[in-house]
Write a structure and sequence with these properties.
Helix content: 25-40%
Strand content: 25-35%
Order of helices and strands: EEHHEH
Structural class: alpha+beta
C-alpha cells in the first residue's frame, strides 16, 4: 500500500521541485489514507492538499510536491526525529 506525503518546500532552497525532499521541506504532511496504485495516490494527495489551508495559504516563495511512498515505518515528524 502507498501513502501520499505532501512536501511544502521553499523555492529559495529548492530551485526546482526535483530538489524538494523530506529532508529539506519546510513541512511534511501525511495523507491519512492508503492507496493501492501510484495514480490513485497522487490524485488523492493533490485533492487532499487542495482542500486544506496548506494549499490555499501557500506563500509566493513556496511550492508543494506530492510524493507517494510505501507505508513509512517510522514517524515523519521531523521535530520528533531530531531529538
Amino acid at each position: 500500500m502507498l501513502t501520499a506525503l505532501i512536501l511544502v518546500c521553499s523555492l529559495a532552497t529548492a530551485s526546482d521541485l526535483g530538489d524538494c525532499t523530506r529532508d529539506n521541506a519546510l513541512d511534511v504532511v501525511q495523507v491519512p489514507a492508503t492507496f493501492a496504485s501510484p495514480a490513485t495516490c497522487f490524485m488523492h494527495g493533490q485533492a487532499y492538499v487542495a482542500d486544506t489551508s496548506i494549499g490555499r495559504d501557500l506563500a509566493p516563495n513556496e511550492a508543494i510536491k506530492v510524493i507517494c511512498v510505501r507505508n513509512p515505518t517510522n514517524r515523519i515528524d521531523k521535530a520528533e526525529s531530531r531529538r
